[in-house]
Amino acid sequence: MGFSGGGSNVTKPHTHDSNIVQDGGSLAANATQFGLTAGSILYSDGANIQELAVGSASDTLTVNGAATAPEWAAGSGSAAFTPLGNDVQTSAVSSLTVTGMTGHDVYQVIYSICDEATGSPQNCAPRMRISNGGSNYNNTYALITAPNQTDAPHNISNADEWKLNTISNRESYSGVFYIYAPNSSFTNGYDGTMIQGHGATTAGQISTLFGNNDNTADITSVEIFFMQNDGTMIDLKGSLQVNGMNYS
Description:
Elements: E1 41-44, E2 49-52, E3 60-63, E4 70-73, E5 82-93, E6 96-99, E7 106-115, E8 124-130, E9 137-144, E10 155-159, E11 162-163, E12 170-180, E13 190-200, E14 206-213, E15 221-228, E16 233-234, E17 236-245
Antiparallel strand pairs: 1-2, 3-4, 5-17, 6-15, 7-12, 7-17, 8-11, 8-15, 9-10, 9-14, 12-13, 13-14, 15-16
C-alpha cells in the first residue's frame, strides 16, 4: 500500500513492492533511514526485523546454539597455514626452491618430484635443505617396507641436508614435510617430520622421518633436490609448495 494514511501523520505498514504505486519501490543502497550502526546486518526473528551489530575483527558469522538466529563467533585466528610460495618446473632443473619466508612457527613443505636422469633410475634420494644449508642435520628414518623390500632403518649424521629416503629403484616422490621452529624445548634448532611415498619399478613404500637441524636462525628458503651417494646432483622436475603457520 502507499504511504498516504488518509490524513494521518503515521506511516502505515507497507511492503516496498515496486509493482504497487506509491509504495516506495524496492529498497536500495543509501535510500533508507534506519538507525543502524555501521557494519550491522538485519535478520528476521520470524515476526520482526532484528539488527545484528558488526562483530570483532576476524570473527565468523555462524548460527546460534538454538539454530534460531545468526551470531558472530571468534574465527580460527592465525593457527592455519598460509601459502608462502611455490616452485613448479615442467623441464629438468637442478633443484626446486622457495624463498622469502620468515617468522613462522611451523613450515609445511609439499612436494611432488621425479628423477630426470637419463636411463634407469639412479641410486639417489631426494634431499631437503633449509636456508641454503650450512649447518648439520641429524636424521632418523623409520621405513614402512613392503614385504619384498629389505631396506633397514637408516641413520645419517653430520650432513647439511635432510635425506628424505634411501630406497632403491626410485624415480618419483611425493610427500609432506613439517619443519618446526626452535623454542625453549628445541635445543638443537629446527625439528622436522615427514611422510613420503614414491613411484618405483618395485612394490611401493611409504617412509616417515624425524630429525633436527642445529640452525636457530630464521628460515629464509626451502630447497629440494636429488643427489647420488657420491655427491652428484641429478636433475628433477615437479612442484614444491611451502606454507607457514603461527601458533598465536
